[in-house]
Design a protein that fits this description.
Blueprint (H helix, E strand, L loop, with lengths): L1 H24 L18 E10 L4 E11 L2 E7 L8 E4 L4 E4 L1 E6 L17 H17 L2 E6 L6 H10 L7 E4 L31 H13 L5 E4 L18 H13 L4 E5 L2 H9 L4 E4 L5 H10 L2 E3 L4 H8 L7 H24 L19 H8 L4 H7 L2 H7 L16 E4 L15 E4 L2 E4 L3
Parallel strand pairs: 1-4, 1-5, 6-7, 7-8, 9-10, 10-11, 11-12
Antiparallel strand pairs: 1-2, 2-3, 5-13, 13-14, 14-15
Helix pairs in contact: 2-3, 4-5, 6-7, 8-9, 10-11
The structure holds zinc ion.
Zinc ion binds next to loops.
Length: about 450
């Protein structure tokens, strides 16, 4: 919560700065440049042939959105545009809220899996993050939850974006993921004599509680944990649970007490259930979710964040990125299984928020996840809701992002066609605005 207030304060300062710069330069088109100068106190009117109300699923024809100081002030059909407003006319295009990805690793790239990661410094991957932040924003994702980065590279990136130093999506970031010794969130590539342990490793109730406090101390605005084994790690089993119930409970209780939500990486059915019973806010991946897990998630109101498109990309590109053989073998088994089980969870009505695991595959392709959800049984509207209002709810930012309504941040995208008819329209985002600033012009 404090963090949110801090961010709000920062963006107000940014806007004041932007207004001053505009006054000096007199360059009213400056905000058309990616990462450009905020629009300051002037009103901007965005016009488009139609706009999607993601709550009702209805199109609003002849849509106008008025923007001031980075926020939406009014929205509707043919509403009056104040004199002197700067016009952005998107013609026949369709307007939607900025998209939200609940599972990214902005400071990671696919060719850095396994041994290829060994020589990369934290400063180097942070700059990789700056490149990926821009790509993600230009793909229409104006908010992300970044879940798991060594060395707090994601926290540095988040703060640089908030300061206006680099363009990128609004980030909720976890810093290092908490995990057990030798688990998915530990470094298991090195021989014992190297004595390498990942930053987030902690075992036992006291140690995990301290680690939770430590990552919050260094800037985590969400806590990421590894509740089961994973695919892209050596020597562990995705189906096996890792943290004990007592450890999970300690982390989640402490995080909630300090105002942070908790996202649990969990493939195996047992780890999913333990995390849900311990009160976790979201299950990431959920590959082996079973009937009991589905029932518990519905009972506890736990969110599911599947990450499914990556299965296609990883298997197709394993050779090109030199994915180590033991990891590819796991991917070939787990990722197709995940689609079968997630399809059941969708059918049973588990609350679902959109996630990709971008970083395991190239950033900017995030929207390819939508078509997989539709293939597994969601309607296009449900798929869009998973990346807008649902994701905003899971962030706890439902009154700031996820819908186009007065009072929300002016985060919006435009596409040529109708994504309710063809969901892949979202893979071809033509225009992006974040907080009143145009991040991508019409192409
Ligand atoms: Zn991940």
């Amino acid at each position: 919560m404090n963090q949110n207030r801090l961010w709000a304060k920062k963006s107000v300062t940014m806007l004041a700065l932007g207004a001053a710069l505009l006054a000096i330069s007199g360059n009213s088109s400056a905000e058309q440049v990616a990462g450009g100068v905020p629009t300051g106190s002037a009103v901007t009117a965005v016009k488009a042939a139609r706009m999607l109300d993601v709550k009702s699923g209805q199109w609003i024809e002849h849509a106008v959105v008025l923007v001031k100081d980075g926020k939406i002030t009014a929205v509707g059909k043919n509403i009056a545009i104040p004199n002197g407003a700067q016009m952005i006319d998107l013609g026949s295009r369709s307007l939607l809220p900025g998209l939200i990805d609940m599972h990214t690793h902005l400071t990671g790239d696919p060719e850095f899996q396994g041994y290829m990661a060994v020589s990369l410094s934290i400063p180097r991957v942070t700059l990789t993050g700056a490149k990926n932040a821009r790509r993600t924003l230009e793909a229409g994702f104006t908010t992300v939850r970044d879940v798991g980065a060594e060395g707090y590279s994601d926290i540095g990136l988040r703060d640089a974006i908030n300061a206006g130093d680099v363009p990128g999506p609004r980030m909720m970031a976890s810093g290092p993921a908490l995990g057990i010794t030798g688990g998915h969130c530990d470094d298991t590539m090195h021989a014992p004599e190297y004595k390498i342990t990942s930053t987030g490793v902690a075992d036992g109730v006291d140690a995990v509680m301290k680690k939770t406090r430590e990552v919050i101390k260094y800037g985590a605005s969400v806590i990421k944990i590894c509740a089961t084994g994973g695919v892209l790690s050596f020597g562990d089993d995705p189906k096996a649970s890792q943290y004990s119930f007592e450890e999970l409970k300690a982390i989640i209780t402490e995080a909630h007490r300090l105002g942070r939500r908790v996202a649990a990486h969990a493939h195996g059915g047992d780890g999913i259930k333990l995390a849900v019973l311990a009160g976790v806010d979201s299950i990431e991946h959920g590959s082996y979710i079973d009937d009991e897990g589905i029932r518990l998630m519905k009972e506890h109101g736990t969110w599911l964040v599947p990450t499914l498109y990556l299965g296609d990309w990883l298997v197709q590109n394993a050779e090109a990125i030199k994915l180590p053989a033991p990891l590819l073998e796991k991917a070939k088994v787990v990722l197709p299984d995940a689609r079968k089980h997630i399809a059941v969870a969708i059918k049973q009505g588990v609350k679902l928020a959109f996630g990709t695991d971008a970083g395991v595959y190239p950033h900017g392709l995030n929207a390819r996840e939508f078509a997989v959800y539709v293939k597994l049984g969601m309607t296009p509207l449900q798929a869009i809701q998973s990346a807008t209002r649902n994701a905003a709810d899971l962030l706890g930012w439902g009154n700031q992002v996820g819908t186009l309504e007065a009072g929300q941040f002016a985060d919006m995208i435009a596409v040529d066609g109708d994504p309710l008819k063809d969901i892949t329209e979202l893979e071809r985002v033509k225009w992006v605005m974040k907080e009143g600033v145009v991040a991508k012009g019409v192409q």
